[in-house]
Amino acid sequence: MLVFVGGGPRTVSLLERLAANAGSLLPASGLDIHIVDPFPVGGGRIWRRSQSPLLWMNSVAKDVTMFTDESVECEGPIVPGPPLDEWVAGPGGAILGDAGLGEVADTFTANDFASREMASLYLSWTFDRVVASFPDSVNVTTHRQRAVIVEDVATDDATQRVQLEDGRELVADLVVLAQGYLDRRPTAEETALTVAAEAGGLAYLPPGYTADIDLAGLRPGQSVLVRGFGLAFVDLMVLVFQGRGGEFVERGDGTLDYRAGGAEPVLYVGSRRGVPYHAKLGYRLESSMPIPPTYFTPAAVAALAEDGTASFATEIWPLIVKELTAAHYRRLFAAHADRTIGSWARFESELGRLDASGPEFAAIVTHAVPDPADRFDMDLIDRPLRGRTFHDRDDLSAALVDYVQGDLARRTDPRQSADHAVFNALLTVYFVLAGAVVAGRISAPDRVRYLEGEFHGLFSFLASGPPPRRLAELLALHRAGLVQFAGPDLSVTVRDGRFVGTSPAVPGEIVADALVDARLPKPDVRAASDPVISALLADGELAVEDLRADDGTDLGGGQLLADAGCHAVRADRTVHPSRFLLGPSVSGSAGSAGFARPGFNGAGFRQNDAVAREILQLAAAASRPHVSGSIRLPEPGRSARPAPARPANRTPSSHPNPHPSRIEISHAR
Prior knowledge:
By secondary structure, the chain is an alpha/beta fold.
């Protein structure tokens, strides 16, 4: 028996790879697969259908697929399937019609942003298609409840028990933990804010998934401070305005007006940058296929990390900046030569020998690119309000409106196609970074502090922002007086029973009776509230990275440790041969979203294929007619969590290519 704990897109994608490889690797005895998740398999929690239909994906439909294509480099067979846009136009049409979305489907285009409800139906259809593609000897069973315990029941790691919240147990040969983004216990600051809010009769909503948060405590007309200007804020904005009966009406010039429903609060939004994420690009280049990197290549990273790991700040980051700079100017010289002076070849040779952020290269850019609007300035792009101060909030508001209007105009203008080239280059950079992490060429502290912190924030800001329509709605809400801007580097304190927000860029304070931290919880598996993860950690059956800065400061945010084959690593740094870890909370796990962009050799697909092939090989080695596949109730009086004996012959995770499971299981069986 194979048991999945978690039934979201990552599990579905791995199931697809199991089905694709079944023809050559499936055990003769077949395979029983059980999937445990309180939410429907396919969408899981994040993409479940039972959330507001007003919430959208932030990728256009043609950029979402659950299926491999010829770009995917894997050992298993390629089994094409429709991206989201083709599914809507094809097999999804009838499904959407039955779901009451037929009118939406009739006018839907490849460049539209699907609702999460629509995405959920696509993911559910994918799951059904995958299950139907398995041979008859494969049985798939789903359990709509939570798993509460996963533990070994023998001393040879050959059998595991997965206990469900209703007391039933699944006895498994193989377990995949793929719970996705893990909820966590509140931080000290969040706890203090919650206590202060309860004492003062205030409303405080800590970080979380907006669709799961009860927003009823945000009262009509109430002043609400919001920390966070990314996608979580956009969801909040949609739910407390349009979700409370308001509506947007198009003006003659294409802009929007907002008609209030009467139940809206007033949001004062700020963040570290103080500006919203850039809107998604509204056009395509002639070719949107990935371009091989020039400077930030796997070979370059390997050379930097020849003696261990490379420094992100001093070695990797300068190469990333150079790669993005090259992408911008390569496109500018090629497609908009009327705005450049000289040849690309000469410009590129200068870029190759100089620091892309240094003054000597800046002087070359000033001469070759006369219009400052055409130049690539990484620091200015990352922090557009850095160093600016404003006389008052009206001055700040005027600057923010200009910024958002400029962004909307630029992101739909093909004359600014250098922006699109940078977007594509960012995807390539992420591809190289993922490989560097898996290969151990970036240290865990650097990964958390820089890659998952600063770089991921920059990537989200530039490339993973909202649909343009959402920023147009933001401007309409601002004109209606319902969204105000709090400024960059927003700081919030509690004083005299009120929340008080200040920004160093603008004088004055914002006093409010409610505070929303509009962002996802900071990942830290040591604080995970998931009962399976927390119990396995307590028993030493899972291990977490120990992340400390050079001065010894605890960085938090550690991931679960897995080896190169995605096997769980224990606290004693040995490997569990038949327990796999996948998802955003796992070191080295790629493609955490489950789906990928067509034609971009999705890292998650490649990893899933390798894991699926090993699972099938392990299942073949373990197959025998015995208790595997049974579901049983606990025996009366039996301890729910007996402490399993520790085997003495565990395999260290430091092995260069650790696959001990094949030997141990063959021996045990």
